[in-house]
Amino acid sequence: MIDAINNSLFSPIGEDGMIGILLILNGLKVTLIVTFFAMLLGAVLGIGTTFMKMSSKWYIRFPANLYVGVIRGTPVVVQLVILYFIVLSALDVDKITAAIIAFGLNSGAYISEIIRAGIQAVDKGQTEAARSLGLSQTMTMKSIILPQAIKNILPALGNEFIVLLKETAVIGFIGGVDLMRAGEIIRSRTFEDSVPLFTCALIYLFLTYSFTFVLSKFEKRLKQSD
Fold first, then answer.
1. What residues form the membrane-spanning segments (predicted)?
2. Closest CA to 146 of 111, 109, 116, 107
3. pLDDT digits 0-9 by tens, 19-29
4. CA angle 35, 37, 40 (to 5 degrees)
5. Domain made up of 27-183: CATH architecture
6. In the chain, where are the structural domains located?
7. If 0-12 CB within 10 Å is exposed, 13-18 middle and 19+ buried, where does residue 146 land?
8. How far, in Å, CA of 98 to CA of 144, rounded?
């Protein structure tokens, strides 16, 4: 077992002289970069899509509903492959940027539903009371609805971040070297299955449990402020 760990993680694994653990750390960096920026892009798209879906005009609601329906109805790996090999094939877009765009588009649809659900969870009577006091629809949303909806939205956004982190494991389908792909490269070069795959699994487990722990503490703080 010690020899397998040494051969997989602490010895050169190819003609390029790359050491396994360094390849995994580089893959981890790619995973975190894609997750972070995809979440930012998804948040922007999600906010915009939410307000489009809540519009009274059908021609504004329709593209938003179509976008959410298509994204939620197809696997993220299919979206990633189509975006990189078809939509962006004529452009000089690197794999990391393509992954950020693909996962950002995917996350935006789910974030939109999270925000919409958070807003609709606020009692409609508060909107009616605010409007009866003379507040405009914009002021009602800004001053009354959103401050309450945020308490429902933020924990769900944290969960979406964790889901997005795990979904990035399919970046290897377009040739990107993320954490999971790094483990596969080590496995293919050393013919050691257990060490690289379990190493990747443990790193994902550590990251998800760390974010979950932080999220649970944050949720407790929100509940204490009620």
1. 30-52, 64-87, 195-215
2. 116
3. 889 999 999 99
4. 110
5. Orthogonal Bundle (1.10)
6. 27-183
7. middle
8. 38
